[in-house]
């Protein structure tokens, strides 16, 4: 019996051979696979970004909740109620900044809290705008009350970078305010 060999397919005005169809099909398949891969990578990138933003929000909300706790509110009120013109007056009223007193513990509790926020902002782990919306005026207010104490501590211990991220946060918020 005679079987004719099919070497092409007639498509109206032209004949296309099987090899051309195979190459065309392979090209379309590779293009579709590449498109699928690119879309998967793009979607994965969006998912990673969403996860990162969710984690950042979670961290900030936990810190905001901590700041709202009785412990931190009492510490912030201790700082707000400080009344001194210079370090000599501070030491007359509250004792040496270098001793372990409740006032000093409250001062450093506030300082380290905002220093930590400054680290997060500096390393793009927290958005300055969100930090400003959550903690607002408290950051510049606390810095301006505590700056002389921080400067004195830096000098006394020879640590010019002590609490630098609190200062960084203050400066960044000031830039934003005037921008």
The largest beta-sheet arranges its strands as 1-2
Strand content: under 5%
**How far apart are the first and last residues' alpha carbons, in Å?**
89 Å
Mean pLDDT over all positions: 87
State the oligomer. single chain
How many individual domains? 2
Notes on the protein architecture:
By secondary structure, this protein is mainly alpha-helical. It has 2 domains: 1-51; 68-178, no CATH class. Helices cover 74% and strands 4% of the residues. The protein contains 7 helices and 2 strands. The protein has helices at 18-67, 70-80, 87-94, 102-122, 128-135, 138-157, 164-178; strands spanning 8-11, 14-17. It has a two-stranded antiparallel sheet with strand order 1-2. Helix 4 packs across helix 6 and helix 4 (102-122) crosses helix 7. The longest helix has 50 residues, at 18-67. The protein starts with 7 loop residues before the first strand and ends with a helix.
List the helices and strands and how they pair.
Layout lengths: L7 E4 L2 E4 H50 L2 H11 L6 H8 L7 H21 L5 H8 L2 H20 L6 H15 L1
Antiparallel strand pairs: 1-2
Helix pairs in contact: 2-4, 4-6, 4-7, 6-7
């Amino acid at each position: 019996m005679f079987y004719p060999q099919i070497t092409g397919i007639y498509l109206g005005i032209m004949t296309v051979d099987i090899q051309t169809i195979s190459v065309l099909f392979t090209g379309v398949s590779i293009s579709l696979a590449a498109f699928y891969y690119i879309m998967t990578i793009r979607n994965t990138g969006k998912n990673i970004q969403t996860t990162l933003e969710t984690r950042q929000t979670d961290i900030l909300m936990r810190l905001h909740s901590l700041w709202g706790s009785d412990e931190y509110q009492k510490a912030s009120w201790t700082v707000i109620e400080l009344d001194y013109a210079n370090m000599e007056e501070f030491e007359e009223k509250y004792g040496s900044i270098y001793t372990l007193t409740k006032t000093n513990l409250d001062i450093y509790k506030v300082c380290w809290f905002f220093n930590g926020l400054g680290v997060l902002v500096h390393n793009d782990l927290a958005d300055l705008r969100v930090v400003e919306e959550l903690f607002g005026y408290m950051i510049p207010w606390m810095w301006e009350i505590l700056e002389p104490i921080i400067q004195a501590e830096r000098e006394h211990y020879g640590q010019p970078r002590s609490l630098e991220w609190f200062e960084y946060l203050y400066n960044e918020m000031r830039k934003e305010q005037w921008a």
